[in-house]
Amino acid sequence: MRTMTSLPARVILLALTAGPIVGFTIALYVLLTEGLSTLLFLGDPIATARILPVWYLYAVPTLAILLVNRLISLDPTVREYGVAEIAKAVEEGRYTITLRGLLLKILASTLSLASGFNVGNEGPSAAIGAMIAHRLNALFALPRRFVTLLVSVGASAGIAAVFVSPVTGISFALENIAGEFIRDRMGPIILAAALAFGVSYQFLHPLLFHYSVGRSFDYEYMLAALLFIPILIATLGLYFGIKRYLLALLDGAVHRWIGSRRRDLLFSLIGGATIGTLLLAAPIAAFSGHEMVAALINGEVHISLKLIALVILLRIIGTAVSIYANAVGGLFLPLMSLGALVGYGYAEALQQYAGFTLHPYAFAAIGAGVFMGVVMRLPLTAVVLALEITYDYNIIVPTAVIVVITGYLMDRLVHIEKLDADSVNTVVTSEQGSIR
C-alpha cells in the first residue's frame, strides 16, 4: 500500500496550484450568482418578489430553466452529478472533462440558483473543483491511478471555498469519496465518542483554548436532542414520502400523456410554474436556503410555527420539482434549510408549551446538520459543519448523537441510499458516455 511519503511531489504541486484556482473560481461563481439574482429580480428577491408583477415572477424561473435544459441538450455533462461518479467515470474512460463543459456547468448552475430554484451551490462547487483539478493534471501528467485523489483534491477545495470552511471540505471529500469504511462505519465511532465526552465532562477538565467560546455543556440540550429524534423521523418521512409520490405522479403523467420525448420541456414549464408560485406565495420558500439558514442559526428572524410548517411543505415540493426540472445544483443547502426550520420550530414549541429554556437558533443549527447528514449519509460532515459554524458543545454533541441514531433508524425504515430519490441526477449513463 502506498503511503503519504510515497506520493509523487507532483501531487503536492497540483494541490498547491488547484487550491487557489478553485478558491478564486468558486468565489467568482457565487458572486456571479448573487449578482445575476439581483439583476433578474431588480434587487433583493425576497423583498422585490412582493412588488414585482405576477407574470414576471413566473417568467424568470421558466425562461431560466428552459435555457438550462438547452445547455444540457448541448452537453449532457452539464447536469448535476456526484463527485464520486466523476472519479469513477473518468477512471474508466467513460467521461472526458472539458473546459467547455466546465463553463457551461457554471452558467447552468448560476441560472438555476439565481432564478429561485431550490438547489444549492455546494454540489456544483464540488464538481467544479473536481473538474479544475483534473484539467490541471495536463500540467503534471499523473498516472490514471491518481484520478480519485485528484478529484478528491478539487472537490474538497470546492466545498471548503463555498462554505468558507476548510475542515468541512476535508471531511466531505473523505466521506464522499474515500470509501465505504468512512461513510458506512463512522456512525458508531461518532456516537461512542460523543457519549463518552458527555459523561467525562462531569468529572474531568478538557484541554482548553481560553480564547474560544462555547466550551460549556448544558445537559438540557442533550435531553431535548433525544426528544427531537421522533420529530426528525416524522419530518424525514414526510420529506421522502412527498418527494417520491410527487415525482412518481409527475413522471407517470408525462409518460401517459406525451411520452418521454418532450419530458424536459414539460418539466421545465412545471418547474418554472412551481418556483413562480413559491415566489408569489412565500419568497423565503424559494432559492437555495442559504440566507434562511444563516438567519435562523443566528437568531436574526422570528418565524411563527404556522409559517414554519407552510415553508417546510413548500420547500419540499420546490426541491422535488427543481430536481425533475433539471435545475443544476446540489441538495446540501436545501436540506440544511429544511432541518433548520424543523429545529427552530421544535425549540419554539418546547419553549412555549414545555417550559424548556432553549435557544431556537441552537436547534436550528442542530437540525440543519442532522437533516443533511441523514439524507446524504454524511454524519461526519454534519458534525464537522456544526463544529466549524458554531464552536459550541451544546450543538456539536447533540448533532453527533442524533445524526447517528436518526440515520440508523431512517435507514431501517426507508433504506436510504445516498441522495435517495435525488439519484436521478447522479446516475452513470455508460451508453451515452456521460454522467447524469
Overview of this protein structure:
- With 436 residues, the protein is mainly alpha-helical.
- It has 2 domains: 9-180, Orthogonal Bundle (Clc chloride channel), CATH 1.10.3080.10; 185-425, Orthogonal Bundle (Clc chloride channel).
- It has helices at 9-40, 45-48, 54-74, 83-91, 99-114, 122-140, 147-162, 166-177, 180-200, 219-257, 263-281, 290-297, 305-324, 332-353, 360-375, 379-390, 393-414, and strands at 428-429, 434-435.
- A two-stranded antiparallel sheet has the order 1-2.
- A hairpin with a 4-residue loop joins strand 1 and strand 2.
Key words describing this protein structure:
mainly alpha, 436 residues, Clc chloride channel, 2 strands, disordered C terminus, globular, 2 domains, two-stranded antiparallel ribbon, 17 helices
Give me the number of helical elements. 17
- Count of all domains: 2
Number of strands: 2
CATH superfamily of the largest domain: Clc chloride channel
> Main β-sheet: number of strands, strand sense, barrel status?
2 strands, antiparallel
Return the structural class.
mainly alpha
The CATH architecture term of the largest domain is: Orthogonal Bundle
Note the beta-strand portion. Answer: under 5%
Q: Could you say what the CATH topology of the largest domain is called? A: Clc chloride channel
Give, in spatial order, the strands making up the sheet with the most strands. Answer: 1-2
Written as H for each helix and E for each strand, in order along the chain, the element string is: HHHHHHHHHHHHHHHHHEE
End-to-end separation: 33 Å
Outline: globular
Radius of gyration: 22 Å
Q: What is the top-level CATH class of the largest domain?
A: Mainly Alpha
Return the average pLDDT rounded to an integer. 80
Relative helix content: over 70%
Low-confidence stretches: 418-436
